[in-house]
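The passage that follows is intended for readers who have already worked through the single-chain material. We present the inputs for a multi-component assembly, then the predicted structure in tokenized form, and finally a short commentary. You are encouraged to pause after the input and sketch how you expect the pieces to fit together before reading on.
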Amino acid sequence: DTGVSQDPRHKITKRGQNVTFRCDPISEHNRLYWYRQTLGQGPEFLTYFQNEAQLEKSRLLSDRFSAERPKGSFSTLEIQRTEQGDSAMYLCASSWGQKNIQYFGAGTRLSVL
Amino acid sequence: GQQLNQSPQSMFIQEGEDVSMNCTSSSIFNTWLWYKQDPGEGPVLLIALYKAGELTSNGRLTAQFGITRKDSFLNISASIPSDVGIYFCAGQPINAGGTSYGKLTFGQGTILTVHP
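Having made your guess, compare it with the prediction:
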């Protein structure tokens, strides 16, 4: 399978705990995006990497959120001191080239109790 | 922030019927995309549109990029039960020097139910 891979698929945590999600993009895709999707809504942009450089962060990404892409390949998204409002589906997408079509992973569903 | 208005919010149709949904924006987009999402899964790309006025088909799906670059529609012909899901439009802004390259803005989605 050469698509975008996300791990874990589901995460249940207690409020106040830290969680980390991983995204493996399609091989050789140099751009990687994180989105958050709540029930009944479309995905909302969180942050974007080109290679290892984080080029943009949304206002949705509070200081409890941090994302990395240390070698320009896989990326991690960490949420510290989780809150119930962080419960959502976290989606990763990757792309390359001028047309920049984004292909999405299956997402990580986070439930904060 | 920038938003896309997608309509209708939901549709209940009989198998074999045609479906039409659309998206409008207050801003211009460089690219319009249509995705389908099944429960618990990520969005899957259906059609990508790159030029104003462009009409593109993918099997029973047809989508158009509006002339004003502020709207797009998706048609599904002869619907079948596996068309059930949530359809999202997404707009990709003009590249502003690379810092916002490809950031997608999504509509709220159209929930499609097909009765056999």
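Commentary: The radius of gyration of chain A is 13 Å. Chain A has a mean pLDDT of 94. How closely did your sketch match?
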